[in-house]
Structures are given as C-alpha cells and as structure tokens.
Design a protein that fits this description.
With about 270 residues, the chain is α/β, with parallel strands linked by helices. The protein folds into two domains: about 180 residues, 3-Layer(aba) Sandwich (Rossmann fold); about 60 residues, Histidine-containing Protein, Chain: A (2-Layer Sandwich), CATH 3.30.1340. About 55% of the residues lie in helices and about 15% in strands. It contains eleven helices and eight strands. The strands form two sheets. The chain has a five-stranded parallel beta sheet, with helices on both faces. Strands 6-7-8 form a three-stranded mixed beta sheet. Helix 3 packs across helix 4, helix 4 packs antiparallel against helix 10 and helix 6 crosses helix 7. The protein is globular.
C-alpha cells in the first residue's frame, strides 16, 4: 500500500517527474484531473474547486465555513484514494493530510526562483515579467494554503523525506531515486498499520464534513479524534441541542463503532 506525496514549486519541473514516477511504478496518479472527475460524487462543484483548490481562505466568516467544507471534501477524496494504496498524490497538502502515516514517502521538487520564472515564460510563451508575477503569486498562495490549513512552513526541508533540486538532478535520476526509495523495507513494513490509521482519518474527515454542513452546529471549533473507528469528541459546545447534533452526526458516519462525549457545555 505504498503512497508517494509530491510538493512542488511552480516552474520547478515537478509535473513530468510526477507523471514519470507514476508510470514507472504503475501507481495511480491523484491530481487535479482525478479530483475534478470525482467532484460531483462529493457534492463539489467545478466552481468551488476553482475557488479553493490549493488557495488560502477568504477570511470572511460565512465564506470560510463553506470554503472549509469544500476543502474537507477535497481532502476526503485524497484520503480515500490513499487508502487504495499504490498512489502518487500530487499537491493538495497530501504530505500533511497523511502526516501520521509512516508508510507515506514525501517528496518536494524545487528550483531557484529565476530559473522557474524562465522555464514558465518559455513553457507558456509569455513575457518574463508576467511569468515572474505568476510564479511569485503561486508561491504565496501555496505557502498560505499550507500555513492556514496545516500550520506548517511550506519550504521547511525537514518536513520531507526527499528534496530534489531540478537544476542539479535530471528527471531520469529523480525518478530512479524516488522509485528506489519507496521500495525500502521500512515503508513496506508499515503498510498494514498505516491502512488502519488512514481509515480513522477518513472517518474523522467525514465527521468534519457533517459538522460543517450541519446548520444546527454554530461553533465548529471542537476536537474530533478517531482511534480504531471509535470517536472521541472534546472541547466545548454552546447548548445541549448542539451537543446532540454533534453526537448524531458522528454516530451516523459509516464504520464508527462508538462515540465518547467529552464535550463541555459553555453558554455565552
């Protein structure tokens, strides 16, 4: 059940490496095309995808809740694909969604800023100044996306298992390095344990979606923890009716074996 996640900078040359790794290993590529194809089944419109995919939030309360809901739906698609195993997850915060999954191999593709600008200008046949603006904006959006949703510095190399600079390493060498690394016994040994953890993450994500979509729940900032399909709810709610709504939503999710209510009632 091997999983490879890719983080990349715009213009770094990550796209061909991702495709070549998936082809070399015979893995399923989970990218924007797969998410768009699955969107209807997850109550996601194409317009919503365009608005939120790998972008930071709007910081407007009523919009942010809808954005959070749609983002959770995208993440559920990624998690359910990861559960199938032998996948290459391209972007979408895959390395952070699966941060506790030790069988996932996290790769980052980088290149110097000016090199990326030049590549993008040549690839898209656009003015270098426009390319510079687009690359800078992409870096800012992706950094903001990761910081807001996962509270992490996007560029921190310690968060990845392998960082590849494409002005120093050819695509062919990069593909060989990644393909060899994923076959390391360490990752193979962790497969079964990690499959159970991914199932728990899927349950957690489904409860988060139900919480965000439930108008009876006004405050969404309570904790949802899932271990071996058992759900523990903690934090605070504002009314007994809100408590019941939270428990109902959690109990209805498929595979949930039980719910522990550690919610505290705080009225204000």
């Amino acid at each position: 059940m091997s999983i490879i996640t890719f983080s990349r900078e715009m213009g770094s040359g990550g796209i061909p490496i991702v495709h070549q790794v998936a082809e070399e290993l015979g893995y399923t590529l989970v990218d924007g095309d797969v998410i768009r194809a699955a969107a209807d089944s997850y109550d996601l419109s194409q317009e919503a995808l365009q608005q939120i995919d790998e972008k930071p939030p709007a910081f407007v309360d009523h919009l942010d809740r809808q954005i959070e809901l749609n983002m959770s739906r995208i993440q559920l698609i990624v998690l359910e694909q990861a559960l199938l195993g032998n996948v290459v997850i391209y972007g979408r915060g895959g390395q952070d969604l699966l941060s506790g999954i030790s069988s996932a191999f996290r790769v980052r593709i980088i290149a110097p800023f000016e090199e990326r600008v030049e590549r993008w200008a040549q690839r898209e046949w656009i003015d270098p100044e426009l390319a510079r603006y687009l690359v800078r904006r992409s870096d800012q959006q992706r950094a903001g996306f990761i910081k807001y949703y996962f509270d992490r510095n996007w560029t921190n190399p310690i968060e990845y298992d392998m960082v590849i600079n494409t002005i120093r390493v050819s695509n062919e060498t990069a593909v060989k390095l990644i393909s060899k690394a994923i076959k390391d016994p360490y990752f193979i040994e962790k497969d079964q344990t990690c499959k159970i953890k991914i199932k728990d993450l899927i349950i957690q994500k489904k409860i988060q979606i139900a919480r965000l979509d439930d108008e009876r729940i006004k405050d969404i900032w309570f904790n949802i923890d899932v271990t071996d399909c058992h759900v523990t709810l903690s934090g605070h709610i504002h009314s007994e009716s809100e408590r019941q709504a939270v428990i109902d939503d959690a109990s209805r999710v498929e595979r949930v074996t039980g719910v522990t209510d550690d919610l505290k009632l705080i009225s204000y």
